Amino acid sequence: MPFPDFICQHCGRCCTVLKEGYNYETHDDQIQIWRDNAPHILKWVDEAMGDYWISPSTNDLVDRCPWLRIYKSPRYKNVKGARCLIHKWKPEVCRDYPGSVIHALFSGCGGFNHLSEERLKHLLVIELIQVLRQIVLDDKVNVVSRERMKSIRAELEDKLKDGRLKYSSKQLTGS
């Protein structure tokens, strides 16, 4: 995992909400890992298309990862969890989730919910500085970048208004 502060909640949102979790171009090195270690996974991959996951019975793209199992907790009533049946051989896109703190917040991931407001703000500031540094160093400040930034901000504000993010806009902006 890319973040020491990230604690997976085993909720399965990454596999059900994010398209990358179930419909993603498979790399040749990943295919080779499956050939060598878990050939049963290849039944769900159409190597000609390069996309996974494809239902072996219908040859259609699936609408969620077939290797995700949602379960009810035997200990706690109404508590659900999720686990990956191919965790040891899961694709790189899955191993690298979330790609950023903002990515986790946008997708509804609770892996940072345990952090204090101060620590979360600190991580967000570091992440934003890195993004700004990339934009400046790569000279990518143009109309498209500004429009994309406005779009991301509007999307984040909508999620905050709808209660789909834990933190308020005041907490995220520090205002």
Radius of gyration: 19 Å
Spatial strand sequence of the major β-sheet: 1-3-2
Structural class based on helices, strands and sheet pairing: mainly alpha
Beta percentage is 5-15%
Secondary-structure element string: HEHEEEEHHHHH
Total discrete domains: 2
- Mean pLDDT across every amino acid position: 76
> Low-confidence segments, ≥5 residues, pLDDT <50?
167-175
Assembly annotation: single chain
Biggest sheet statistics: 3 strands, antiparallel
* Global geometry: globular
DSSP helix fraction:
40-55%
Head-to-tail CA distance between termini: 31 Å
H/I helix tally: 7
Tell me what the structure shows.
A hairpin with a 7-residue loop joins strand 4 and strand 5. The protein is 40% helix and 9% strand. The protein has 175 residues and is mostly helical. The chain folds into 2 domains: 13-95, no CATH class; 115-173, no CATH class. The strands form 2 sheets. It has a 3-stranded antiparallel beta sheet, with no helix packed on it. A two-stranded antiparallel sheet has the order 4-5.
Task: Please supply descriptive tags for the structure shown above.
175 residues, mainly alpha, 7 helices, globular
Give me the secondary-structure topology.
Layout: H1 13-16, E1 24-25, H2 28-37, E2 45-46, E3 51-52, E4 68-72, E5 80-84, H3 92-95, H4 101-107, H5 117-137, H6 143-161, H7 169-173
Antiparallel strand pairs: 1-3, 2-3, 4-5
